[in-house]
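Retro notes, item 3 of 5
We never archived the inputs for the magnesium ion complex last cycle. Fixing that now. Sequence and ligand:
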Amino acid sequence: MNYEAVIGLEVHVQLRTASKMFTRVAAGYGQPENTLVDPVVLALPGALPVLNKEALNQIIKAGLILGCQIAPVCKWDRKNYFYPDSPKNYQISQYDQPICVGGTVEIELPGPSRNVMGEHKRVPLTRIHLEEDVGKLNHGATDSLVDYNRAGTPLMEIVSDPALRSADEAFAFLTSLRIALVQGGISDCDMEKGQMRCDANISIRPVGQAQLGTKVELKNLNSISFVRDGIAHEIRRQVAVVQSGGTIVQETRDYDGQTGASQSLRSKEMAHDYRYFPDPDLMPVRVDAAWQARIQATVPEHHFDRQRRFLADYQLPYTITSVLVPDRALADYFEATVRLGATPQAAGNWIANDLLRELGAAQVTLADAKVQPAHIAALVKLVESGVISNSIAKEVFVTMAQSGELPDAIVAKQGLQQSTDTGALEKWVADAIAANPKAAEGFKGGNEKALNAIKGAVMKASAGKANPQLVDQIVRKQLGS
Ligand SMILES: Nc1ncnc2c1ncn2[C@@H]1O[C@H](COP(=O)(O)OP(=O)(O)OP(=O)(O)O)[C@@H](O)[C@H]1O
Ligand SMILES: [Mg+2]
Ligand SMILES: [Mg+2]
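Structure as it came back at the time:
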């Protein structure tokens, strides 16, 4: 029997806000334990929550980016449970009225090869709701310590439909979602800092069966690659269980990305165990059309729309677009260069290859780069107008990346203009022919390629400054063709 996998993801993403969800204490990472706390975070008697409007703005923006419908009223519920990471014994969350409903994440599956765009698919979302993050338990050998710095940080939970069919699709989903949220300024989505966390729900069913199988939830998947590996592992495990006559039990399993093994954590509680009820301390908030429109105006172009535009309008190769587009600042930089008059293909090449290489070597971010769009636009112009050759331009690029000087200044100062001095060229060519008699004979015998050795020698003699078109003409003339 053949089985197919069914996967639904629950993705928790911390919103980038200055303060916490229901109090003015700062939200942050990496501070000394229990310093980002106050009576609201610690749930001291009498403390009352006050909504951080910015958190609501951010989740509405996330919903608009993903094409969700935004609920007209945002209401709050208590999710009751006892665990030391939550001092209130409940979490403020949204139960039956999530702020965002529907929407999709557009994904790209791996293409037939690196330089070919893969198939695109829209994965439907069930809902996105807002809740507060919980504290963190640090387990020692004999005891556990709790840190409430994270408690109360605004957190959204994005729940997908059970519509993914493979570990690769889940990988593509998280990759695209992360780009969209980072580009929208919703979150930095750093999984190492816990800003983005994913639970994967996995079941299998015989191919052709409509009814869903029993799901297993995988937790603690703290990188996108671990999500992919964990899902692939779980699918294999379930198929093996079923094929050996067993049945899948609904449970939560812990996947260890380092060892590639999983173990059962607990069998899943039912939703009604949480005794949800509306939070009497918080008033519902009406989100009218004008509010939505204000936020809609701040939604950036979706990265895949931008990629399609780069392919169609600038005729860039797919590989260049897939370097530029995932990084909003880099794509903006490219478009700024084109606006300054640079040919798009040339600008794309310089930015995706040389600029990134130099930034990487110097360990500098784009924001601190000495090479600005104006530098690249000027360099492209120098090459296209024949003032310098492409190989000299490569050297100029390295110099300007280090000094920040404009390319025209570097070319003038170092005398790098291509030589159109025919007297000098005639001499270099004559020398090169004398030094390469075999090549000269070869060309006369009809071998076009033999010219390259002579032209190469001329370029070398001129230190790269000879104008290649002129050299070609003069070589042919001297060889009598
Ligand atoms: N049979 C199934 N196989 C695979 N995935 C499923 C199946 N049924 C549901 N799912 C997925 O499981 C996830 C359920 O998430 P949801 O937050 O609604 O409930 P939960 O996991 O029970 O609650 P909690 O937030 O407490 O973990 C969704 O992503 C959904 O698509
Ligand atoms: Mg959930
Ligand atoms: Mg779950």
